[in-house]
């Protein structure tokens, strides 16, 4: 399973060639695609701001994804991951930590261009 980060969704919506190529590859391989609830919010904020056809396309796209919810144990795991990063001297945003914990729980690979995910121990990350 792939957990799509908001960077991938935004790049796909903006027609970035690497994101489009990766989306076609995942479709050909019939990969299971999901998005963590915080990533869904990050992606849709821009779509709602633009409105119109952009919003309609974004909502259609996310309707095809499995949305992975955040539970209390996952929130605690995100904090643990953040603590590990802090002990290593690295800083990672809280939303990225939550997305990472959700993806880890579901044994999903995070598809992103955000280099912060590579700083989080024990997380499978793929770029495009």
Instruction: From the 3D structure, determine the CATH topology.
Output: Rossmann fold
Order of helices and strands: EHHEHHEHHEE
Name the poorly predicted regions: none
- Give a short account of the largest sheet: 5 strands, parallel
Q: What is the number of domains?
A: 1
Strands side by side in the biggest sheet:
3-2-1-4-5
Please compute the radius of gyration using only Cα atoms: 14 Å
Shape: globular
Oligomer: single chain
Question: If you had to describe this structure to a student in words, what would you say it looks like?
Answer:
The protein has six helices and five strands. The protein has a single domain (2-126), classed as Rossmann fold (3-Layer(aba) Sandwich). It is globular and about 45 Å long. Helices cover 57% and strands 12% of the residues. With 128 residues, the protein is α/β, with parallel strands linked by helices. Strands 3-2-1-4-5 form a five-stranded parallel sheet.
Task: Provide keyphrases for this structure.
magnesium, Type_II_TA_system_RNase, about 10% strand, about 130 residues, alpha/beta, PIN-like_dom_sf, Rossmann fold, five-stranded parallel sheet, 5 strands, 6 helices, about 55% helix
Task: List strands and helices in order, with pairings.
Elements: E1 2-4, H1 6-13, H2 17-28, E2 33-36, H3 37-50, H4 52-62, E3 66-68, H5 72-87, H6 94-105, E4 109-111, E5 125-126
Parallel strand pairs: 1-2, 1-4, 2-3, 4-5
Helix pairs in contact: 1-2, 1-3, 3-4, 5-6
Protein name: Protein containing PilT protein
Organism: mine drainage metagenome
Family: Belongs to the PINc/VapC protein family.
